[in-house]
Amino acid sequence: MPLVKVIRKGVTPSIRKVPTSTAAVMMPMTLERVGKEAASENEEPTKVEDVQDAFKKFNPKLDFKGNAGPEETEFKAEFQFRNIKDFAGMLCIDKWTCNSNGRQAVFWRRIRERKYTATFIDQGYCFNAGEWSFPDSPLRGVYARNEVYREITGWESFEPWLTKIEQMSVEAIANCAEGIPPEWYGDWDELERLIEQLVKRRSRVRELIAAFRTSSREPFPRWTEARVAVM
Questions:
Q1: What are the average pLDDT values for consecutive 10-residue runs of the chain, which has 231 residues?
Q2: Structurally, how many domains does the chain consist of?
Q3: Is there a domain that residue 37 lies in?
């Protein structure tokens, strides 16, 4: 469950009562009620005194935590996602193609759904953007927060994506390239060299993931298997 964190610096926090003259009452609109009708036409609004009183009475399902201090105020909220395991698959692709940017994603949900879905966007820095080179680095092409990798427990967590990349035929990669409009790349020889590099890099994806695993980020806390060098 990825963590959404907001920090406001230089704010002196204080818990104030809700001004009864303007906002003495509020409907119990908790997360599970979004998109649903009221229980009845006669449902009465619930009176609250402050934010803490609202959380106590409404008991929202969103996991919300906060820290308040003289220097900064920090709010944290955890959300549930339907496809959290897909981040492992995108890590395989980003390492294979040398995405030189951080992994980008947007999170969305439909009305009446509690869980969010991650959609992966902005692949423009794959192949090192317009350079079409592969300056690999352990922290390139990875998502900014480790929480999205919390379900990874070993190499099996990267399946079926990892094996599909390793076993992808030269013909399949070339067929993908043939669908690219010529005006996008200009020189076929350069595109052909890019294909050759992708073919060679199929066998390096495990090595690149292993380098991320042993990096200072320590992204896979549940992966307890002994750290053995990947050949």
A1: 51 48 44 52 64 58 60 65 94 98 92 88 95 97 94 97 98 94 89 96 98 97 72 47
A2: 2
A3: yes
